[in-house]
Design a protein that fits this description.
50% helix; five-stranded parallel β-sheet; globular; 2 domains; 217 residues; HAD family phosphatase; 11 helices; HAD-like_sf; Rossmann fold; alpha/beta; single chain; HAD-SF_hydro_IA; 5 strands; HAD_sf
């Protein structure tokens, strides 16, 4: 570890890390109620989201829901489905504490999220943006975490190098890509597991993780 550059920048995912994964839970829950295969509906939803243009701000929301109904059979009022989905994104207070701790250690902490304009609605509810130095949202940036360009863009905007950047995400695909680009990465499975790995990568975080203050920006 002595020859490893100090982590100066941290990129953190929203859904599945900062908050419970509402997209997964919401879609599977709605599929189950309608007697559909939850895993099949979720798989179709992911591919549609990445392919229809809504994720990167190139199509309106109804295109996503219309295509999902056509391909997976998930029907119902769009507003009701959106509300059900968004209700599953429950912010984890402990993760916001950790974001504050990282910033208190002098690190740049940014959100890197494959989200639509739903993230703006969730911020109105939870007011999470002030915790971060910068929010990179696919809907506004026009690219996703399936593209190396999104990572390059974030690093360039933050003035960071891959070798000094940590990426935390619950997607194995996104974590694998980030590592090929030279970033250190944690595949998020639980808060406890993430804290353990974080303390190993950033030893100066250990005292704060053991006795964490809650720091509101």
């Amino acid at each position: 570890m002595a020859d490893t550059p100090r982590i100066t920048t941290v990129l953190i995912d929203f859904g599945g890390v900062i908050a419970e994964e509402g997209f997964v839970n919401g879609l599977k829950g709605m599929a189950d109620v309608q007697g559909l295969d939850p895993d099949a509906v979720f798989h179709e939803a992911v591919e549609i989201m990445y392919g229809c243009g809504y994720l990167v701000g190139q199509a309106p929301e109804h295109v996503f829901w219309d295509e999902l109904e056509k391909r997976a059979g998930l029907n119902g009022d769009m507003q009701a489905k959106r509300e059900k989905l968004l209700s599953g994104f429950i912010v984890r207070p402990r993760m916001l504490e950790i974001v504050s701790m990282l910033a208190a250690q002098g690190r740049t902490v940014a959100m890197l999220s494959d989200q639509t304009d739903w993230l703006d609605e969730l911020n109105k509810k939870y007011d999470v943006f002030p915790y971060f130095h910068r929010v990179f949202n696919s809907f506004h940036e026009g690219m996703s975490k399936r593209q190396p360009e999104f990572f390059h863009h974030a690093l360039q905007e933050l003035g960071a190098t891959p070798q000094e950047t940590l990426f935390i995400d619950d997607s194995t695909q996104h974590v694998a890509l980030s590592r090929t680009l030279g970033l250190t990465a944690i595949h998020f499975d639980s808060v406890v597991q993430m804290e353990k790995e974080l303390s190993e990568i950033c030893p100066d975080m250990r005292p704060l993780l053991e006795q964490p203050p809650y720091c509101r920006p």
